Amino acid sequence: MTDAISVRGLRKSFGPKVVLDGLDLTVPEGTVHALLGPNGAGKTTTVDVLSTLTPADGGEVRVAGHDLAREPRAVRAAIALTGQFSAVDALLTGAENLRLMADLHHLGRQEGRRRAAELLERFDLVDAAGQVPSTYSGGMRRRLDLAMGLMGRPRVVFLDEPTTGLDPRSRRAMWDAVRGLVADGVTILLTTQYLEEADQLADRIGVLDSGRLVAEGTADELKRLVPGGHVRLQFGDAATVRAAARVLGVPAADGLVLEVPGDGGVAELRALLARLDDARVDVAALTVHTPDLDDVFLALTGRPAAEEVPA
Amino acid sequence: MTTLALTVNDSATMLRRNLVRALRYPGLTVIVAAMPIVFLLLFVYVFGGTLGAGLGGPSGGRAEYVAYVVPGILVLAITGGAQGTAIAIAMDMTEGIIARFRTMSIARAAVLTGHVVGAVLQTLVGLAVVVAVALLVGFRPDANPVEWLAAAGLLTLVSVALSWLSVAMGLWTKTVEAASNVPMPLMLLPFFGSGFVPVESMPGALRWFAENQPFTPVIETLRGLLTGTAIGSSGWVAVAWCAGIALVGYLWAVRNYERRPAR
């Protein structure tokens, strides 16, 4: 598998403020990579640099097989950006916005109209096609925005906080649209403040803090990185709890429950149950608690994750 | 497609976009077109009798002043259009779609060229309306078709030059409000030239300024073409000014566009 995006030592400062401090990032073709981080972590700046909007101060970046600094036009021909600020023309109707994109991709009149109709259909905008975006809901506007980006059949799509400020239903519709893109083989770099969004959509997640990746991996790998995971064991009576506590060497808790620290991996569970079996201690119920990404974020950056931004 | 064909193609697409936008949001265009007509009527009917007498011609009075003031009004109309262009591009830059354009593989200058060509077309329509109103209030030019054509050509050239300059100004300013203020001095320039009174009637330093600023040769050339006064070297000086302003405006505009912050 080749890499759709590869970033080595990316640096960017605005005046004295260092925004990206040696960022490394690799996104294999056809996968979804989420950049997770609070406001000001450098997510949007990363997207701006990778989409050729902002020049980098240093580092090597290749997008869709082209060097960003040397071949920006080739990069632009292969990408699309959907930002947190809707990139639609407010005075043109939905259909006109799409046909404008078709013209700029030199699709020709017939093909342009055909593709516009197809995208309106796909993104459930047929009824709104003749109206200007100011009459659209937030979700419709984002869908139009994404549809416009797809006119040129991009191989890499940047989604900058695609669901910030959307209601849960619109958010799910947007997630479905993103999954549809993935099915088409498009590579996606997604930025988000929502842990659930990264968990739902991304193959791999990078946690960005102060312009550096502080952790990277699948959602499960990240969850295993942090303490806080435990196996919760429930027993039938107080005597059994005390016996189990002795065997496992954990302090006896109140009630009939014991919490044993661990990541909940299969080997660990097997060992745990084997020890209880050997001591002839019966377990009534067992649940595994892995930390969610909120725990991950807190552990990695020392701060809670998303402070909700008013949309 | 070649680079040139792509640039022309993309610029035409952007031009269509701007014309549709101008039709959807006509307020700005109407104000820009109405302003010079108001000034024409003001100067002909309110000031025209007195100013015309001061021209010292054989007949004097309002009829003579109409002939004198129309070239100045035409240039004023172009400066009004320039202000509209600066506002339009500053407004456009606040739209997210500009960021999208910059991430697309389209000719870099196309967004700006589309604005300039659209502005020039709108200005020419406005000028045609001003000329029609001028004819209604008694403007009687003696120009032959070639002279009309030359006058139209010069007006187009001035409009192109001021459009590039105003696009640059609109990009340079941070807000739409500032974009509407920065071109103001341009609108005053015809008054500090030969647009409304002969420069000979002005005091020393002002007269020197009036004689050497770009709008005076433009106005003198238009006056010569339309009403048969002497043009002298004004024609070439006017063309040179326009070329210079267009070049500076273009370079400044492209530089501002490239250097704008991402969003």
UniProtKB/TrEMBL annotation, chain A:
InterPro entries: AAA+_ATPase, ABC_transporter-like_ATP-bd, ABC_transporter-like_CS, ABC_transporter_ATP-binding, P-loop_NTPase. The keyword Signal does not apply. The keyword ATP-binding applies. Keywords: Antibiotic resistance, ATP-binding, Cell membrane, Membrane, Nucleotide-binding, Translocase, Transport. Pfam families: ABC_tran (PF00005). GO terms for biological process: response to antibiotic. GO terms for molecular function: ATP binding; ATP hydrolysis activity. It is found in: Cell membrane. GO terms for cellular component: plasma membrane. It is a peripheral membrane protein. Residues 5-235 form the ABC transporter domain. This is ABC-2 type transport system ATP-binding protein. It comes from Geodermatophilus nigrescens.
UniProtKB/TrEMBL annotation, chain B:
The keyword RNA-binding does not apply. GO terms for biological process: response to antibiotic. It comes from the Bacteria. Its main location: membrane. InterPro entries: ABC2_TM, ABC2_TM_bact-type, ABC_2_transport, Nod_factor_ABC_transporter. Residues 27-260 form the ABC transmembrane type-2 domain. It holds the Pfam family ABC2_membrane. PANTHER family: NODULATION PROTEIN J (PTHR43229). This is Transport permease protein. It comes from Geodermatophilus nigrescens.
